[in-house]
Amino acid sequence: MENSLHLVIGVVERDGGTLYCTALFFSPDGYLGKHRKLMPTAAERLVWGFGDGSTLPVFDTPFGRLGAVICWENYMPLLRMAMYAKGVQIWCAPTADGRETGSRRCATWRSRADASSCPATSSPTAVISRQTFPTHSQRTPMTS
Question: For the structural domain made of 7-126, what CATH number should be given?
């Protein structure tokens, strides 16, 4: 609880032989849960699995009820209605799109959250590949 924060982060989740676009939720006490993207967008369907709708959580926090939908899911009216029905009060929209058009989409998503009286936040996801990290033989041992 050193930083006492709540965090929603987009990740690539591997489950069995399938990859999912997933949002993970954390509180100061640790892992809360996840949401798997329901419908991969366009060419994503060649790689990502489809969420089944069982992971649409909204979590109680001291700041309000926290929820997230991923990227283009914000354009899905029935998904938004499901989140409104769960009482979402803080709307997070993780996306991997850092382009200018992505920023305009984020503004659209924020306006939809505003329509439901939710503060909203979105931030492009940093993409880090495995090659970014040193191999086991390159790691420097920690000293005290």
Answer: 3.60.110.10
